[in-house]
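Record type: monomer structure entry
Structure origin: computed from sequence
Chain ID: A
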Amino acid sequence: AIELGGEERKIYDRLFAHASQKVHELHSSGQLASEHAVVMTFILRLRMLCCSSDLLPPELLAAAGSSARGALAAAVAAVGDAATQQLLVKLQEQAEDNCPVCLEPGGDAITRCGHVFHRGCIDLC
């Protein structure tokens, strides 16, 4: 097993969630069998990331959101400081509540209607 640490683990998790969503979409639309090369490419990219994120195409890293600091700055700018603080407080308050999808504690995403989920669970739905 390969242990990924820090930022590479976060990139891997985001890339895996992105790939899972795309594969789910292909399966739902009945195109999975005809688009097997896409699935193989996702697997290849995930394996490449296990060696080094430098091996991935820059556009894929951007799509996977490799710059967490940049994404956070953009999100804060979009909703404002006060709203960001309210969201952080809500996440902290509901840290012990269970995600409605997987029934595990520790949600990390808030929907527009204010429900707390795991980001991966939302991506799978």
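Annotation 1: Residues 6-28 form the longest helix (23 residues).
Annotation 2: The chain has a mean pLDDT of 78.
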